Amino acid sequence: MTDRSAMPPLSCEEVHDLAPGFVLGALEPAEMAAVRAHLAGCPNAHAEFAELGGVVPYLADSLEPVAPPPALRGRIVAAVAAEAATRTADAPAMPLASAPASAPAPAPVGSLDAERARRRSPLLWVASIAAVLLILGLGAWNVSLRRDLDGAQAYGTAVDRVLALAGSPGGQAAILTPAQPGGPSGIAAVGSDGRVEIAMRGLAPTSQDEVYEAWVIGTDQKPVAIGSFVPDAAGFGTMATDRAPTGAGLTIALTREPTAGRTTPTPPVLSSGVALGSI
Amino acid sequence: MNPVSGPVPGRLASSADDADRLVLEHVAAGDHGEIKILYDRYGAMAFALANRITGDAALAEDVVQDAFVGAWRNAARYEQGRGSVKTWLMSIVHHRAIDATRRRRPTSELPEPEAGPTPGPLTEPDVWAEVAGRLDRDAVVGALGTLSDVQREALELGYFGGLTQQEIADRTGAPLGTVKSRMRLGLLSLRRALTGDGLEAAGEVTPSGEPGRPEGSGTG
Questions:
Q1: CA distance B17 to chain A (A)
Q2: Mind listing the pLDDT tens digit for each residue in A187-199?
Q3: Any long-range contacts for A109-116 (C-beta under 8 Å, 24+ apart)?
Q4: Which residue of B has its CA nearest to A32?
Q5: Hey, are the CB atoms on A100 and B63 less than 8 Å from each other?
Q6: A192, A272, B16, B208: which is deepest, by most CB within 10 A?
Q7: CB-based contact B48:A65 (threshold 8 Å)
Q8: What is the ipTM, given to two decimal places?
């Protein structure tokens, strides 16, 4: 029964006997696996598992809550945002930040050691956003033309400003993903003081009075125009303001408008992302 | 199949758990920012649990981060019949914390990385849904107080200590069968104290245990 290396198939009685240890996670891995294997194929209900196990998670309630270090929240949000962005990069994005209904199979959990190594610096999550940008951008980013290179440099400078703002106290970052494949994408940062920096690429040329307008959508779902810009010849565009709404759960969205100064967006939303990372 | 997040029609967030489920649905639908809401609700409990199990605040941080990212990845796999979002989250934290603790012990085999301790095909009539909302720390501490010292010790060494039942037997000097019996009776008593549902427990006779035998004084 306690042989670590080999577990023969278990009888129902043996599984019943192991149930308390199983629900507490207090068995050897081989025993855990053998119990699982039995339950997966056993026609009997083995109600003792639910009966014994239902109470187990409540053991955690006996502990006095302990406030985690404040920076942990930002790291979790950034880790999720970074992984979400790489997923989005693999699949065409839906308008307004919705992932495909059938999410890809979860990646194996990275080792804790690797995780620890990555999180040593408080600003590392900004670096992880930058890494996501590389994943999002460089693969499809054609910089072979000189004008692209010039635009890319302006874009890169804007990205630096975005990252600086995102890394400021209370700063949040949003990765803007295109609503349609090939549409504009980029990154934005929202400061706690109302500043917003946006760097976009893949913008189609505008004509006459047309502009790209950036919107902040808060939890009330009302878009607020925060600034307009026109792209350069290579499709790069940047924008900055210090008068944007602040708060949590902001969505940054981009539309194309016939003129500057509109107060309601003209559909469709071309690119959008949710600001994350407030600490 | 509609991936657009938003309020689910016909569903009212009538309790904390319904609200949690709604948040988790949004997370599963791609609104990953909502993981913050779950963290704000349960981060302190998760950290307390991870800290208690690992005994190492830095490792506990890693565990909590790992657990919440894991919860985000697996949000679509959450099954409503298997318990509340909170207990689901705590199970993930617990599993990762035990995993992290055992990795530090060179002689121990590594647990399977993703399989949770909860058996797959089993669901329970929702006795917990009715009481979960009223369970607070005082209730659980009080319920633990109804256990004998050796029962409570067996549960705590297993759940918080990350020890296997054999290791608990070795440490306490009690026979393995006794440890199993203490765990079983302790869990049933705890369940009875928290839910008032003790009919099955009253007639519980374990094959290897010592039903009816009073557990003596604690193994100091």
A1: 14
A2: 888 888 889 999 8
A3: A109/B66, A109/B70, A109/B113, A109/B114, A112/B59, A112/B62, A112/B63, A112/B66, A112/B100, A112/B103, A115/B62, A115/B65, A115/B66, A116/B58, A116/B62
A4: B117
A5: no
A6: A272
A7: yes
A8: 0.76
